[in-house]
Task: inverse folding
């Protein structure tokens, strides 16, 4: 895998199974590494280079949790840009099928460049890919990554640290809030280099009268030891 370009790794993912999981659970796990261990180490090394980022957020200051994250500046690192560019064409058709099932008029273009143009027209011009960092005791409250009027239905999270070696705890969390019913929680553990694709804010749920929206938030459970780094790929830009 080390010599395989990221575009090929993405192409070879089991996209039919991933889409089935997105429909049934609101998330899909790659099941195999998308990034090599060396790429994970290289990306983690960027975190200490302020010039690569446009802003930094200390979660505790805003009561978002305990930890910190940084949004990449333009131009994005080559690997981050490649992930964003090559994942999007596989996700856009699924997004449109979701939107159609919910009876909504919006449709998403099949190229990331066209989505970026729509974002600029809506006043959303800041890049949103980010890296997140937690030490022991850190966590992330349940939330959604919206950033503006134009919101793409999916985002991806790539795990840069190795569980049980670099950190313990810190599971990825998804909580689905259903109308007139109790919420459902998913606790997701991933290996280094693995990817989880998940809904940005809601997913279609099948009801007696067709599909309706199930609201979903995501977060991170408390890290018990070590340091946890992840890369977040968000496709719509921010205001």
Result:
């Amino acid at each position: 895998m080390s010599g395989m370009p990221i575009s090929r790794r993405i192409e070879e993912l089991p996209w039919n199974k991933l889409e089935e999981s997105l429909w049934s659970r609101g998330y899909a796990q790659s099941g195999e590494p998308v990034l090599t261990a060396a790429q994970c180490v290289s990306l983690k090394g960027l975190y200490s280079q302020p010039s690569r980022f446009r802003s930094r957020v200390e979660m505790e200051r805003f009561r978002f949790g305990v930890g910190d994250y940084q949004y990449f500046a333009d131009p994005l690192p080559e690997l981050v840009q490649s992930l964003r560019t090559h994942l999007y064409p596989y996700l856009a058709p699924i997004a449109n099928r979701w939107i159609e099932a919910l009876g909504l008029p919006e449709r998403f273009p099949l190229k990331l460049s066209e989505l970026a143009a729509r974002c600029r027209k809506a006043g959303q011009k800041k890049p949103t890919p980010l890296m997140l960092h937690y030490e022991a005791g850190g966590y992330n409250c349940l939330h959604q990554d919206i950033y503006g009027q134009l919101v793409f239905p999916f985002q991806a999270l790539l795990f840069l640290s190795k569980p049980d070696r670099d950190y313990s705890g810190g599971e990825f969390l998804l909580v689905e809030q259903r109308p007139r019913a109790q919420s459902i929680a998913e606790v997701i553990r991933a290996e280094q280099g693995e990817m989880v694709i998940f809904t940005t804010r809601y997913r279609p749920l099948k009801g007696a009268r067709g599909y309706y929206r199930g609201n979903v938030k995501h977060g991170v459970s408390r890290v018990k030891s070590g340091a946890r780094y992840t890369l977040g790929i968000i496709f719509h830009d921010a205001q």
Observations:
- The CA atoms of residues 109 and 115 lie 6 Å apart.
